[in-house]
Amino acid sequence: MSSLFLYAVVTLAAIWLIDKWRKRLAFYEKLRWVNKVPGLPLIGNALEFKDPTKSLTRMQEVLLENDGLCYVELLYRPMILISNYNFVEWLLSSNTLIEKSLDYKFLHNWLEDGILISTGATWKNGRKILSPAFHFSVLEEIVTKFDKPTLILIELLEKEVGKDSVNIYSYIKNYALDVICESSMGIEVEAQKNSQSTYVKSVDSMCNIVVDRAFNPLKTKDWLYMLTPSYYKEKAYVRYLHSMSDKVIKSKKSSRQNGIKEDKDDDTGRKKKNAFLDLLLTYKDQNGEPLSEKFIREQVDTIMFAGHDTTSMGLCFAIHCLSKNREEQEKAFKEIKEISEGKDKFTYADLQEMRYLELIIKETLRLYPTVPFYSRNTSQDFIFQENKVIPKDVTLLTCAYAINRDPKVFKEPEKFIPTRFLDTDVKPFSYLPFSAGPRNCIGQKFAMLEMKATLAKLLLNFEILPSIPEHNVILSAEAVLKSKNGFCVRLKKRII
Ligand code: HEM
């Protein structure tokens, strides 16, 4: 009896394995048109892309060798790396290929159905509701929310003047958190003055947990992750962060119900547009129904996450580039000085006028795209260029870092040359720090304004010099592009 049972089990297992193998062969057959980067049995190419300080250069290398399109496998996970212009255009313009890949699921406990990770009708609806919050009339008002955090940043950095080296990373990170809290929720967390606050620490820890899960194979599977201490820590952080967002939403809601209006007219008689959260609270659908508290919380948390680590890294890399390129710094300073003559605050229009500074930011994001790659999952078989099939459940990874450094598009791609953007030949899918198409960055104008306002104030107050000894960043491709050894510069008070 027992040998009969064993025989049945072995037969079933063999059938299952043969079926799996047959499906795998059919899968490879469909993908024959893509060059495969040779890997090791079972682990595939995992070792080549494991180290975040080396993965970007390796990606760039294999993409150059394979005309911008190649197949890799990371521990059985099928993935196509992409920098090929036609493929990128096809992928990012698609209205159906919009499902985010597995890596984003680690954000789900925190952001739930927020627009960064949701898909289908939920994403479409969220994106439609959120888009007006990034309209220029709202951004005009949001610009004023940068003033207070910027003043604190200058005050703190003044204490570092004259030192051989200051690592600006934590200063800028806390600053960006202050800006996003003030502009998205209308609350002051004072991260710059109180970096030990539970809120600041929870946001920071959640960002670290998400990255750790994406890169640590022991934590990618939910059932294994649940056996680790991180799981319980994450639960506590999420509970706290959700309770904070709920508290702010409830309190804003009750002020509105009690008739405490926060939308005051400005001195030109126009209606002031309030913080992002206030806009969501005033929204009514076509039946006159307000948004649910859950929906509002998910979107507010999403903006908090997507809108602070990205800009803080953009700013850190820009400061690093300015320290290394003094001539460019002086050109930007001259422009800012002229625009700021007789003013102590910048308006939206002033920031729009800072064209040279904009070139500097664009060139920074070309060399150091803060989101160095982004990925989609094929929810079904897709066909590229008539007969090229991409089977279901393949990760399509667009490598912005490789695209932005393509020597066929950008002459001397490793050099910092801001004026290259005056050349109108840069085609839309050749430069992609904010992605493109329907799932592009909803906050890109906000990010540009924040980076301009901050850099302009910094340049009016300081000369940014290379640190002593001179510092070179070690790039690390995490959820955002970071520097493993920080961002060290030297600050000199600017005498105007
Ligand atoms: C230098 C700053 C920034 C960079 C480089 C950047 C880059 C990007 C990129 C590449 C994507 C697409 C990601 C993907 O496809 O997975 C994205 C999406 C997004 N970004 Fe940004 N971002 C920045 C700042 C911001 C800011 C300031 C906000 C909000 C205030 C924001 C909100 C979002 C949101 C909500 C999405 C998801 C959009 C959707 O899927 O519909 N980002 N960002």
UniProtKB/TrEMBL annotation:
<dbReference type="GO" id="GO:0004497">
    <property type="term" value="F:monooxygenase activity"/>
</dbReference>
<dbReference type="InterPro" id="IPR017972">
    <property type="entry name" value="Cyt_P450_CS"/>
</dbReference>
<keyword id="KW-0503">Monooxygenase</keyword>
<keyword id="KW-0408">Iron</keyword>
<keyword id="KW-0349">Heme</keyword>
<dbReference type="GO" id="GO:0005506">
    <property type="term" value="F:iron ion binding"/>
</dbReference>
<dbReference type="Pfam" id="PF00067">
    <property type="entry name" value="p450"/>
</dbReference>
<dbReference type="InterPro" id="IPR050196">
    <property type="entry name" value="Cytochrome_P450_Monoox"/>
</dbReference>
<protein>
    <submittedName>
        <fullName>Cytochrome P450 4c3-like</fullName>
    </submittedName>
</protein>
<dbReference type="InterPro" id="IPR002401">
    <property type="entry name" value="Cyt_P450_E_grp-I"/>
</dbReference>
<dbReference type="InterPro" id="IPR036396">
    <property type="entry name" value="Cyt_P450_sf"/>
</dbReference>
<feature type="binding site" description="axial binding residue">
    <location>
        <position position="441"/>
    </location>
    <ligand>
        <name>heme</name>
    </ligand>
</feature>
<keyword id="KW-0479">Metal-binding</keyword>
<dbReference type="GO" id="GO:0020037">
    <property type="term" value="F:heme binding"/>
</dbReference>
<dbReference type="InterPro" id="IPR001128">
    <property type="entry name" value="Cyt_P450"/>
</dbReference>
<comment type="similarity">
    <text>Belongs to the cytochrome P450 family.</text>
</comment>
<keyword id="KW-0560">Oxidoreductase</keyword>
<dbReference type="GO" id="GO:0016705">
    <property type="term" value="F:oxidoreductase activity, acting on paired donors, with incorporation or reduction of molecular oxygen"/>
</dbReference>
